[in-house]
Amino acid sequence: MTAARALDFYFREGPTVFFTAETTWPWVISSISENVETQLGIPASEIRSEFFPERLHPDDLDRATDDAARLLHNGRAPFLYRVRRSDGTYVLVQGEFCLLRDERGRNQAVVGYWTDRTEQERARAVLSAIPDAIFEVDQEGKFSFFHAKPLQTYVDPSRIIGATLHELLPKDVADLLLNAVKRALASRESQVVKYALPFDSEWRHYQAHLGTSLSQDTAVAIVRDITDDVLHESALRTQKRYLEEANASLEQFVYVASHDLREPLIGVAGFATLLQKRYGAVLDEQGNHFVEEVVSGTKNLEAKIDDLLALSRVSRGNNSGTFALGAAIESAKRCLVGQLNKTPVEFKLPEVMPLVRGDRGQITQVFQNLFSNSIKYRKVDVPTVIEVSVKEDSSPGMLLVSVTDNGIGFDQRHAERIFGVFQRLYTPQQYPGTGIGLAIVRKIVERHGGKVSAVSEPNQGSTFFFTVPKA
Ligand code: ADP
């Protein structure tokens, strides 16, 4: 191939467009290489006077006029314009104009060249929009590329290229990163490391994802500033610890208060009962009624205090036991033998009982409270049926247990509230109780990592759900 044919090939297929133009602005193009058609979609033969200034982006026109003036003055002028393609989209072209003069110094022609920078510009725009820092380092930890927002840069950016990790970073961090680079290069698998760097007044935390570059002899690290996440997590941990402590001291308070209240109350109850027994005959009907009110009031209070004590003891269980769910159900039934003797209940239980993890006594208590409610809130005119079922829960590692009865039910809008302490839907005269049974159920289930809920409709029975960890 002769040199002329090589040039011809380059003008048709190469990435650089060459042109010549007349010297009076706006320039009329006198010749242009054929590859302009690949870049702009316009055949070289059609590009003449319509090129400058019509094809330039309107916002670049002033710059083009300035460039033309500079060219006359300096003889050369670099440029960067957006040029409209035949389909109306713009390409970014970068190149240079040069003024050709004859031997007497008269302007003869403008010559110039450009290349399409659209892709590079797009890549640069994408890169600058990325909040992460990006580094490329070799086996020895020497930096060959970096992109970082000024704030993310720990050292003066001008020192980075050519320097090594150990020259720029504290030794422990440099060791950590260099090991990760070596692991990434050896295994070809991406590595993740976390580290912190001391700035003037604070530590900032980073997470680096390292992979290998195209040539596979350098590692590319994408480094994210995770300081806000780390601080947030640490604040949450502190808050959790604080809440746990507050909760523990509140529970201790409830325990001590209920314990101390119990003693004088038993005294009052005892004397009221004595009064009733010994002086009932000398009191008139109203006097006897008053004493009766005192006795039943103290009994009610005693029951509430006992339940509060039971509630405060819930946090002391041992959650790590393993037992069959059926064993807890059978224990619960045994505890309710008194109630069950008075009210026959048909139990429908699952055939296979899975093993669960937790405090057997407490899970027994959950069933006991739920069964006891199903009996208490039964319909008097139909035989009581309680059905227990177990299935896998949607959260991994948990079982979903349900206890369904055919009792009086309740309005679904109370379904949340009834799990609260002392929350009841009836007076003690209508149905005896303190309103703590379901609060105990919730507390036990939650300290096992589970959740409670209830579904009901008046007169249509109720279903109580709770989740419990599988063994
Ligand atoms: P208590 O039974 O002592 O009132 P609980 O905390 O066990 O306290 O129950 C709270 C309230 O929820 C009850 O007062 C009752 O109104 C309602 N409830 C609980 N279980 C059932 C049930 N199986 N059927 C209908 N209502 C129920």
Summarize the structure.
The chain is of the alpha+beta class and 471 residues long. Helices cover 40% and strands 25% of the residues. The site of adenosine-5'-diphosphate has 22 residues, from helix 11 and helix 12.
Secondary-structure blueprint:
Elements: H1 3-13, E1 16-21, E2 29-32, H2 36-40, H3 61-74, E3 76-84, E4 90-101, E5 107-116, H4 118-129, E6 133-138, E7 143-147, H5 165-168, H6 171-187, E8 191-198, E9 203-212, E10 218-225, H7 227-279, H8 285-313, E11 321-324, H9 325-335, H10 337-342, E12 345-348, E13 355-358, H11 360-376, E14 384-392, E15 398-405, H12 437-447, E16 452-456, E17 462-469
Parallel strand pairs: 12-14
Antiparallel strand pairs: 1-2, 1-5, 3-4, 4-5, 6-7, 6-10, 8-9, 9-10, 11-13, 14-15, 15-17, 16-17
Helix pairs in contact: 7-8, 9-11, 11-12
The structure holds adenosine-5'-diphosphate.
Adenosine-5'-diphosphate binds at residues 369, 373-374, 377, 405, 407-410, 418, 423-426, 433-439, 462.
Walkthrough of the structure:
With 471 residues, this protein is α+β, with helices and mostly antiparallel strands. It is built from 12 helices and 17 strands. The protein has helices at 3-13, 36-40, 61-74, 118-129, 165-168, 171-187, 227-279, 285-313, 325-335, 337-342, 360-376, 437-447; strands at 16-21, 29-32, 76-84, 90-101, 107-116, 133-138, 143-147, 191-198, 203-212, 218-225, 321-324, 345-348, 355-358, 384-392, 398-405, 452-456, 462-469. The strands form 4 sheets. The chain has a 5-stranded antiparallel β-sheet with strand order 2-1-5-4-3, with helices on both faces. Strands 7-6-10-9-8 form a 5-stranded antiparallel β-sheet, sandwiched between helices. Helix 7 packs antiparallel against helix 8 and helix 11 packs antiparallel against helix 12 (437-447). It starts with a helix and ends with a strand. The model has no long low-confidence stretch (mean pLDDT 92).
